[in-house]
Amino acid sequence: MQNRTEDRTEQRLDRLRGRAPRRRHDARTIAALTRNPGCARRAVLDAAGVDKELLARQIGFAAPFGQSPFAIVRGNVFEARVTADECAALLTLLAECLDTDAEAGADEATSSDVIYLDLGASGAGPDAEGPARRLERTEAVLRSEAAARAGAGSRAETRAEPRRTVLLAHPLLRLAVGGQDVYLEPDLLVIRPDGRAHVVEIKSFAVVDGQADGEKVAAAAVQAAVYVLALRRMLGTPAAVSHDVVLVCPKDFSNVPLATRVDVRRQLLALDHQLARLTTVQTLLDALPPEVTFDLAPAADGAPTRPAGELTDALDQLPARYAPDCLSVCELAFRCRQEAAGRTAALGASVREELGGIDTVAEVLDLAGGARTPTESQAEAAAHLMITARMYAEGLSAGQALAPPLAPLPAPAQLQASLSASHPVPASASASVSGGEHG
Fold first, then answer.
1. N-terminal to C-terminal alpha carbon distance within the chain
2. Which of 8, 194, 246, 393 has the most CB atoms in a 10 Å sphere around its CB?
3. What is the per-residue pLDDT across 296-326, written as a single tens digit (0 to 9) for each?
């Protein structure tokens, strides 16, 4: 019975997507799911693998998305510097960042028992291996390390065994998202001497005077949490993967790396919730008319030919939950923002929560001015709005009473005469201007 339901869901998702190939998730798109987990529109389109960027362009709401070429080049240069010489400089930063005991961190950083493996090194060139092979190599290394540490632990009773640090660059992980396997590639995994693995993310945004862009840090933390979740599910032992990840960013205005530890437990909870919601997307599909599809009807050259009106009508069947944050994470944000114009949701999550039950800005103004009788669910918010409106009006009146009266503005002719008297135009300039006008 369960298999039949899954097959039915997959068939419906295929019809929604149409003839276009499925767009695969990556860490960025999975991280974006947690920013607005209540959006049915994104949940269905992502589960179906619809190309949202192409869809937005076809309906006339193309959004500038993705990193700039400059940011990509800067990121590649910074990552190359951080990982140079098999991450020699980074190892010291990691030890200092993850150890509360400074002496222990220094000992680890100077230890010769460090193994560095670049699991993506053979992924370039004509003989590049596929993701399945890279995944096998990653799993083999992780299993080998787990077995070696288990053996070292059992031998520790008889003699002291040296503990080693393992750095895995560009490993490949797997995570099931909406019934599809997604391949993910973190920048670096470090397996500490205590056996716990930490995800390391290398980002090119700067930390200036100990402060970084909060939105960029939040996005990086969620992206790192995706890797933590994938690794935990692959290993089957969540305790073996730490919830503390390491963000490595340029310090101040240089390319000197700075490592910062970030706790991503909250992000992991949000990811678990949203991924579980994606697996039950059938409930959302059941509410859609059977004829709804987002097939772009590509021509021979791949260009979409489906009329924009048909796609817009299909999109209207999926309720959106727009928030200002969508502008930085969703390709359809411009379209959804237009739909949300005049609604309290467009002002942000905090406003929407404070004004629960009041959907439009017009309702807010009417309730604040006493022109509308609130419903039972709106009563509390309406009372706060009326108090706020009264305080605002009183403050405005008091300010006007204290302010000196403004002198009336002079007529345009008087203003021009005053300016001419204060700043006379030289005769030569006047002649030049006059000649220019007639010549």
1. 89
2. 246
3. 888 888 788 899 999 999 999 999 989 888 8
Sign of CA dihedral 75, 77, 80, 84: negative
CA distance 78 to 203: 8
- pLDDT for the residue 22: 86
Task: For the chain, give the mean pLDDT.
Answer: 82
Closest alpha carbon to 199 in 111, 140, 268, 114: 268
Q: What are phi and psi of 184, to 5 degrees?
A: -125, 145
Mean pLDDT, rounded, for 72-92: 87
Whole-angstrom distance, CA of residue 9 vs CA of residue 425: 79
List the one residue out of 65, 66, 25 whose CA is nearest residue 332. 65
Question: Which token pair is 30?
Answer: 């999975």
**248, 223 contact by CB (below 8 A):** no
Concatenated DSSP letters for 340-405? TTTBGGGG-HHHHHHTTT--BHHHHHHHHTT-S---GGGHHHHHHHHHHHHHHHHHHHHHHHHSPP
* Cα angle: 162, vertex 157, 198; to 5 degrees: 45
3 state DSSP class of 34: coil
The pTM (predicted TM-score) of the whole model is: 0.71
Q: Classify strands 188-191 and 197-202 as parallel, antiparallel or unpaired.
A: antiparallel
Dihedral of CA atoms 267, 270, 275, 277 in degrees, nearest 10, equals -170
Here the tokens at position 81 are 């510097």
